């Protein structure tokens, strides 16, 4: 009992024996292959009769937790239109979707419809593993290109092997826009005697004024590392052409993150952090908590997404939203894209029902309902936006899109970019990395990922 | 009187150590007893104690489902693992098995193995079997690790029973199972009890396997996993409710602990037989 | 402690079990009992299927580049060299070594010193103290993490105490600060383990024969010499037990890190187990994760083996 060597040896021998029986990891899933259901081409908008032919069926949906208020309204309407279908929804947080969805869809009993996340971190893997179905037929039948604009949908296009982003078949669709911008506390801005900033320099001046008056200029919570990426996106817009950023995120050959412009961006963010513009302890504060504090009246500005509007309105205060004001280029630039795409599982046996669901949520009638629920619809020109904060968000998103300034999201770039860039940003803001040291490992992560593709 | 001074100093140290051991739990208990929604900081002593945070946490966190899941999983693991361990421990400790030492060595290896080393293949295996998000997905690997400890434990205990007692039955020509049931088990009951307590504690508190294998299915999550999801892994926007959830999760174990302190303490101290 | 000592004492009474290489004649007389393995089989089968075999498979998986979804590519030891060259192995194991100090060495030392102070007196209410000091051991690590997250919070009790002491300058979000996160998580481990160590040593110290202390005192030993000459050697067994238990806990440590810092800020608290979880289930670098799991397992075996070899029973064969 006291001779470790004896049982180490015994155990070691046992280990070696057990290894013999293994096959190549992943081989079994290749043998079976996902059971593709063929011949379900959708050629025209699905009718209630076509769905009724399925008999009594269940449509299983995996959705982002932020979608709950929307789906709570949509599902009863859907079930009334298609009475033979029962909808079952499971909600997961964005982080959980990125982490777990590939495994859920490749498991034994995948949901029929699932919201993914654009880019290589999730959607690329789903396409590569053949887990989601191309939606070109739906795009045709529901006239997505005419209604949403051809280029808008590029972020859902993939080559069939999932290795090339931005070209090929369409694999998803979203009826809403997600854009990062600046929320501001109107009362505080007034008290500080500040106008809405119109240039980036104005904005930086406003930060300094706020700090001098003893306010925390930017409410910020970065414990989960993702919020820093949004800050980087809006500051980067002063220095970098948005098309260059999109190319880099899309994995275009020869693109690089290691540029003087990105070093300049990192320098600005580091200066802001060292000035104390973000307050203290932000690495110990989660993003949702920072939003809650901002809604409760702490901080002058909050750099956040349109998806956080409901949480900010919940505070009951008077808030506004503007796109980050432009630098010399005059372009409004921010991390931004369509919302998380709806995908159809290759194993779904109720494709018409799934198509009808997507058809409903992307319909012209639903654009207004989405707006009523505080979501910014892609079809923004068709809606009436009277609530002031919401009107700000619609206008701001429109300005960014009009400038072609939406730069996607950095975490789309590789499977590990959220962690590597988020972690590096924390170190940059803490002064542990120089701006140049910050840029290099991010490009390395990107290059390593591109090399493997 | 140095003796007297020693005694005072020693007891003061013990009291201090006890306070340190208790404080983190007391601090969240205090936090939880505050009125819901109150902005909290510092020691957060409740001015108007309220159970509002507890009802909030209970309603929003799905802890009733989680408690049921934990009970089913822990109950199954403890019963099955104790049964298998008693059988194996008896054979390896009392019967004269060839290669017994090698087999015991293999079991001993399980005592230092981290779950991290097994969780990847177990995950993919359970996925292939369609068991993700179901109780067996965590029950099977938990039994596997529990029998390693249990077998070593029971073998040690049975081996310590005087040979005369062990062999008495054999001479009468009783079967091996009879000897185990009628002669050895009654003697070993306390040791079995301590083992069961220890396995209860380990299984109830296990986190990684639950996180990996049960996350997909909110109905099957165990209490630690449900708490981790509820609290987010870094959230504190609503510290009162989060604290209440943590207290709720701790409560069943604390109650069991108060009820069966001796077994727990013995188990923890003697969990040391491990090596 | 009774349970640890009885089996050890009892083993000497058990005939024919610990006797090395029994004589041939005897072996024939006492027919070796293969049928007895029927009793072992159920336990062994579950153990092999769900504990041993997966470890082997992990080792095998570590030789592939695999996303967990599509067919894997054989890379031999490529994952290991990559992890080494990128510094991931060194940094995660480095954090583990820091945790080893806080989770294992520190509580052992604290427990030993306190137990040493108490060898000369009779403790009143020992059972009560023991029950209280064990509470950190029985709480779920997620509960512990939630509690300590509050203690370390920017607006939490620790900073309140510091403010009250006029040390407002050092207050911070302890778990969100690059300088303090690792140590802060380490101290949680110290808190979890110190009670167990203390009680192990106190129980052990009560069994050290009084005469040893008396003769030491006759030799003119003070409290400190007494501690090193009598108490520490007398607690050799307990020391080994405490160190092995706390070391395994320190190196396996996933739950507390994951639920307090999730490896951050940056990667300042990322330990191998966190890397395994992230790689295997979040970023789909399954081969890398498996390689780290293998290294972690070997590391645990080596450290535990070393502790056991260093502190083996003096009377050991």
Automatic annotation (TrEMBL), chain B:
The keyword Zinc does not apply. Keywords: Cell membrane, Membrane, Transmembrane, Transmembrane helix, Transport. GO terms for biological process: transmembrane transport. The chain crosses the membrane at residues 12-33, 66-90, 102-123, 135-158, 179-204, 242-260. It is found in: Cell membrane. Its main location: membrane. Residues 67-260 form the ABC transmembrane type-1 domain. It is a multi-pass membrane protein. Gene3D superfamilies: MetI-like. Pfam families: BPD_transp_1. Signal peptide: none annotated. InterPro entries: MetI-like, MetI-like_sf. The keyword Transmembrane applies. One of its GO terms (cellular component) is plasma membrane. Belongs to the binding-protein-dependent transport system permease family. This is Carbohydrate ABC transporter permease. It comes from Jiangella aurantiaca. The lineage of its organism: Bacteria, Bacillati, Actinomycetota, Actinomycetes, Jiangellales.
Automatic annotation (TrEMBL), chain C:
CDD domains: TM_PBP2 (cd06261). This is Sugar ABC transporter permease. PROSITE patterns: ABC_TM1. The keyword Transmembrane applies. It comes from Jiangella aurantiaca. It is found in: Cell membrane. Keywords: Cell membrane, Membrane, Transmembrane, Transmembrane helix, Transport. Residues 1-22 are annotated as: Disordered. It comes from the Bacteria. One of its GO terms (cellular component) is plasma membrane. The chain crosses the membrane at residues 34-52, 97-119, 131-151, 181-205, 289-311. InterPro entries: ABC_transporter_permease, MetI-like, MetI-like_sf. Belongs to the binding-protein-dependent transport system permease family. It is a multi-pass membrane protein. Residues 93-307 form the ABC transmembrane type-1 domain. One of its GO terms (biological process) is transmembrane transport. The keyword Signal does not apply. Its main location: membrane.
């Amino acid at each position: 009992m006291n001779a470790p060597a004896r049982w180490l040896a015994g155990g070691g021998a046992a280990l070696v024996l057990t290894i013999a029986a293994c096959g190549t990891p992943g081989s079994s899933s290749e043998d079976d292959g996902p059971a593709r259901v063929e011949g379900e081409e959708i050629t025209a908008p699905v009718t209630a009769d076509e769905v009724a032919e399925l008999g009594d069926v269940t449509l299983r949906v995996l959705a982002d937790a932020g979608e709950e208020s929307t789906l709570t309204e949509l599902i009863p309407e859907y079930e009334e239109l298609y009475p033979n279908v029962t909808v079952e929804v499971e909600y997961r947080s964005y982080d959980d979707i990125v982490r777990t969805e590939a495994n859920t869809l490749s498991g034994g009993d995948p949901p029929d419809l699932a919201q993914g996340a654009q880019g290589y971190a999730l959607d690329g893997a789903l396409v590569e593993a053949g887990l989601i179905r191309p939606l070109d037929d739906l795009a045709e039948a529901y006239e997505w290109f005419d209604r949403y604009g051809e280029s808008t949908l590029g972020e859902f296009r993939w080559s069939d092997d999932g290795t090339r982003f931005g070209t090929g078949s369409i694999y998803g669709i979203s009826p809403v826009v997600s854009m990062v911008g600046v929320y501001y506390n109107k009362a505080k801005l007034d008290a500080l005697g500040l106008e809405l900033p119109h240039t980036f320099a104005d904005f930086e001046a406003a930060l300094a004024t706020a700090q001098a008056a003893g306010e925390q200029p930017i409410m910020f919570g970065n414990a989960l590392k993702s919020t820093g990426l949004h800050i980087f996106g809006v500051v980067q817009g002063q220095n970098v052409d948005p098309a260059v950023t999109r190319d880099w995120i899309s994995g275009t050959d020869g693109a690089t993150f290691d540029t003087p412009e990105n070093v300049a961006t990192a320098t600005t963010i580091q200066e802001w952090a060292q000035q104390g513009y973000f307050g203290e302890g932000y690495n110990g504060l989660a993003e949702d908590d920072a939003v809650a504090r901002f809604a409760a009246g702490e901080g002058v500005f909050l750099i956040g997404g349109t998806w956080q509007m409901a949480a900010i309105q919940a505070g009951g205060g008077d808030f506004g939203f503007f796109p980050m004001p432009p630098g010399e280029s005059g372009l409004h630039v921010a991390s931004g894209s369509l919302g998380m795409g709806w995908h159809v599982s290759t194993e779904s046996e109720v494709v018409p029902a799934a198509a009808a669901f997507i058809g409903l949520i992307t319909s012209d009638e639903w654009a207004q309902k989405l707006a009523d629920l505080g979501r910014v619809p892609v079809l923004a020109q068709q809606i009436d936006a009277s609530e002031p904060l919401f009107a700000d968000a619609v206008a701001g998103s429109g300005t960014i899109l009009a400038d072609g300034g939406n730069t996607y999201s950095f975490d789309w770039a590789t499977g590990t970019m959220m962690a590597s860039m988020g972690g590096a940003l924390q170190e940059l803001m803490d002064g542990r990395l120089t701006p140049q040291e910050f840029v290099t490992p991010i490009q390395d992560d990107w290059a390593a990922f591109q090399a493997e593709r | 009187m140095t003796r007297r001074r020693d005694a005072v100093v020693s007891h003061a140290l013990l009291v201090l150590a006890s306070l340190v051991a208790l404080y983190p739990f007391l601090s969240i208990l205090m936090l939880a007893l505050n009125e819901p929604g109150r902005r909290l900081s510092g020691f957060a002593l409740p001015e108007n104690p309220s159970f509002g945070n507890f009802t909030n946490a209970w309603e929003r966190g799905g802890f009733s489902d989680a408690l049921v899941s934990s009970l089913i999983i822990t109950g199954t693991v403890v019963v099955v693992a104790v049964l298998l361990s008693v059988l194996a421990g008896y054979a390896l400790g009392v019967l004269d098995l060839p290669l017994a030492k090698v087999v015991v060595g293999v079991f001993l290896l399980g005592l230092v193995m981290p779950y991290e080393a097994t969780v990847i293949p177990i995950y993919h295996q359970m996925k292939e079997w369609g068991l993700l998000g179901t109780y067996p997905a965590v029950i099977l690997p938990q039994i596997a690790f529990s029998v390693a400890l249990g077998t070593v434990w029971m073998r040690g205990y049975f081996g310590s029973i005087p040979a005369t007692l062990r062999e008495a039955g054999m001479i009468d020509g009783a079967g091996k199972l009879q000897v185990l049931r009628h002669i050895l088990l009654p003697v070993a009951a306390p040791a079995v009890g301590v083992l069961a307590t220890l396995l209860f504690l380990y299984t109830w508190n296990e986190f990684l396997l639950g996180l990996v294998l049960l996350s997909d299915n909110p109905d099957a999550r165990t209490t630690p996993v449900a708490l981790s999801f509820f609290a987010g892994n870094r959230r504190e926007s609503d510290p009162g409710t989060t604290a209440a959830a943590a207290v709720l999760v701790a409560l069943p174990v604390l109650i069991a602990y108060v009820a069966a302190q001796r077994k727990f303490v013995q188990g923890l101290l003697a969990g040391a037989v491990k090596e | 402690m009774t349970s640890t000592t009885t089996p050890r004492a009892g083993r000497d009474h058990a005939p024919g079990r610990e006797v090395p290489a029994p004589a041939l004649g005897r072996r024939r007389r006492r027919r070796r009992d293969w049928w007895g393995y029927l009793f072992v089989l159920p336990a062994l089968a579950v153990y092999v299927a769900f504990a041993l075999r997966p470890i082997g498979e992990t080792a095998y998986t570590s030789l592939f580049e695999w996303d967990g979804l599509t067919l894997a590519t054989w890379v031999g030891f490529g994952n290991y060299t990559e992890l080494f060259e990128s510094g991931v192995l060194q940094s995660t194991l480095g954090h583990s070594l820091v945790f080893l100090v806080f989770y294992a060495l520190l509580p052992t030392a604290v427990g030993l010193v306190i137990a040493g102070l108490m060898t000369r007196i009779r403790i009143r209410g020992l059972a009560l103290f023991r029950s209280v000091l064990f509470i950190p051991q029985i709480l779920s690590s997620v509960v512990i993490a939630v509690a300590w997250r509050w203690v370390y919070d920017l607006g939490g009790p620790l900073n309140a105490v510091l403010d009250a002491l006029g040390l407002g300058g050092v207050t911070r979000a302890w778990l969100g600060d690059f300088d303090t996160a690792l140590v802060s998580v380490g101290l949680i481990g110290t808190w979890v383990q110190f009670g167990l160590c203390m009680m192990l040593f106190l129980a052990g110290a009560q069994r050290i024969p009084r005469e040893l202390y008396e003769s030491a005192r006759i030799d003119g030993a003070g409290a400190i010499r007494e501690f090193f000459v009598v108490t520490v050697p007398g607690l050799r067994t307990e020391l080994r037990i405490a160190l092995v238990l706390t070391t395994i806990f320190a190196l396996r440590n996933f739950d507390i890190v994951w639920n307090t810092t999730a490896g951050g800020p940056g990667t300042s608290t990322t330990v191998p187990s966190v890397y395994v979880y992230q790689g295997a289930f979040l970023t789909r670098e399954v081969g890398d994760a498996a390689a780290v799991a293998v290294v972690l397992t070997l590391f645990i075996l080596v450290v535990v083996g070393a502790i056991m070899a260093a502190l083996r029973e003096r009377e050991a064969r």
